[in-house]
Amino acid sequence: MRKVYKNIFGEVVSKSNAVKLSEYHLYYYEEGSDFLKEIEFISEDSIYNINYFLSDGEDEGQILEYLKEKSDFFDIEKRDTTDGFIISTNKLYSLSVDELPLISKTVFKTDDPENFICSQVIDNETEEPQLEKTVKCWYTTDENGEKYAAIECSYQEDGKLELAVDKTSDPDHEENWAHYDYDTFQDLQEQCPADISYYRTAALLPKEAYQK
Fold first, then answer.
1. Which of 33, 108, 126, 153 has the most other CB atoms within 10 Å of its CB?
2. Which residues on adjacent β-strands are paired with residue 194?
């Protein structure tokens, strides 16, 4: 593994300078590549958090035991790509609280890997999404060309839209935002230049992704 030391602002520093800091981050990359495998968050010479990026073919059970030896608090992330979407599955462990992780799935478009379009919490026992905890975002750009979450959606237990908050008319002033629900969603669609039918239910991916 290739190690890279960074300060809390993400700036690369030498090991000798890093260990003098009260807090720094240690990045592990696969040899000969830029594939990030692990980030250790270190404060006062103690690891307080780890992000681990699982590769295809890795034994998750072995990785879990490896991480347990290093910290009580860590996150294992696995990324899959399908038909223009990135699905990130995260298992967040806090061993001082519970042996079982908090599991979530987050969806991004491959051409915009910074802004999530869907986030779901997964039930540990059933491995099914807790639909009432799903959040979806639709993005557009403001008058300055900055991308922002213009429509934010939450859902009911049955997966139907509970509330869609439309910020497009006045992104900075909440009192001017419009609100829609499952029954009035078509009114929102008629005002939107894109097909936003994906946002009417808590489904993880758009229908066309399942049909391919």
1. 153
2. none
Number of domains in the chain: 2
| Mean pLDDT computed over 164-189 | 93
Percent of the chain residues past pLDDT 90, beyond the cut: 80
Last residue of a domain, one of 33, 48, 77: 77
CA atoms within 13 A on the CB side of 30: 9
Domain boundary residue, one of 35, 62, 77: 77
pTM: 0.85
DSSP 3-state of 77: strand
Q: CA-based angle 112:158:209, to the nearest 5? A: 35
Indicate the pLDDT class of residue 32, thresholds 50, 70 and 90.
Answer: confident
Instruction: Report d(CA 39, CA 52) in Å as an integer.
Output: 7
SS3 string, 30-70, reads CCCCCCEEEEEEEECCEEEEEEEEECCCCCHHHHHHHHHCC
* Residue 210: pLDDT over 70: no
188 φ, ψ (degrees, to nearest 5): -70, -45
Ramachandran area for residue 146 (φ above 0: left; ψ -120 to 50: alpha; else beta): beta
What percentage of the chain exceeds 70 in pLDDT? 98
